[in-house]
Amino acid sequence: MSRLFMFEKPLGMRDTLPELHDAKESVRSSIEMEMKRWGFQFIETPALEYYETVGMASAIQDQQLFKLLDQQGHTLVLRPDMTAPIARIAASKLYKEQIPLRLAYSANVYRAQQREGGRPAEFEQIGVECIGDDSVSADGEMIALAISSLKKAGLEPFQLSVGHVGFVNELFLQILGNEERARELTKFLYEKNYVGYREHVHSLPLSSIDSQRLLAFLDLRGGPEVIGKALELVENGKGRDALDELKILWEIIEDFGESSRIKFDLTIVSHMSYYTGILFEVYAGMIGFAIGNGGRYDKLLEKFGKTTGATGFAIRLDRLLESLGDLEPPEPVTCILFSPERRKEAYQMAAEKRENHERIVLQDIRAVRNLDACSDAFANVVFLVGKEGTQ
């Protein structure tokens, strides 16, 4: 073994130590239970997928994929997200099912990092996909479930920013004339580089009216009044249809009783190129990144030979835990120290306590070199040493 790499991990990979593992398990469990209450069924997909199917269908950039070859020479990838693998499953299952699928998952995904910068290359997502429903009601359900799941996890306060990628695309195409110029401007939005966005708009050969429309677009943030302002910027039916969907969405979220949790931000776009409609991001505390995001992706299943509506969301557990702040203290653990002649008694005592849901460590006292360290490590220490009936 090379001493250089004896204690190192591959770039972007992390260890999860016991305290963090327990906290993650607790949060995951509370969210999973809530998703099940909403009728979503959990599934698992393989960590390895074919590059030509899931790898190419995913919206993750090619240079971020972990690739390897199997024994037959096929290129495989470690799954870079969960939406594409679930779309693969749903595309075949939907030929038999006549109702929307409600699927959930909790799994690690893998995205290679060019430089560390504190960004993990492996992280866990928990999320849902509603496949086969193209209604705004399904979009509203995703947002309401995301809110309910985060509340069950104990997160407060948090806010959802809601936009519509269809509106952004249509507005930019109207003004800029082609998709290439629209993508160039959209990149500034994805990077949230609003200074660069303004400078780029000023550099474009546009009329003063069109330049002003693009600059006014950046102010489309707030409550339902934003929809009226946005209507003044678009000229045709597609853009207005997108805004009509947002208006209906607001009414749906009001019916769920959660309108105070959301704000419209029509400047939201995503690096996930398969999004086609309503999308949203979740922010909390002092975390500078979204802890969750989701939206509608009606075109993705076409890559697997099926045309249908779909929407969903994913929460990043590492960012959620960071948003929750200080971890809950672990449940107390009792250590039963025993000598050989009292081993059976110790085993019986441990079994009884575990039946009462206590956390118990059994430890032969001959292996303990420092009793003070043992006392520091556990909430309680029981000594069963010497003949039975003596301590």
TrEMBL record:
Gene Ontology terms: biological process: histidyl-tRNA aminoacylation; L-histidine biosynthetic process
Record PROSITE patterns: AA_TRNA_LIGASE_II (PS50862)
Domain Aminoacyl-transfer RNA synthetases class-II family profile: residue ranges: 25-340
GO-annotated molecular function: catalytic activity, acting on a protein; glycosyltransferase activity; histidine-tRNA ligase activity
Job description of the protein: Required for the first step of histidine biosynthesis. May allow the feedback regulation of ATP phosphoribosyltransferase activity by histidine.
Oligomer and partners: Heteromultimer composed of HisG and HisZ subunits.
NCBIfam families assigned: hisZ_biosyn_reg, PRK12292.2-4
Extra remark: This function is generally fulfilled by the C-terminal part of HisG, which is missing in some bacteria such as this one.
The protein's name: ATP phosphoribosyltransferase regulatory subunit
Organism in which the protein naturally occurs: Mesobacillus subterraneus
Gene this protein is translated from: hisZ
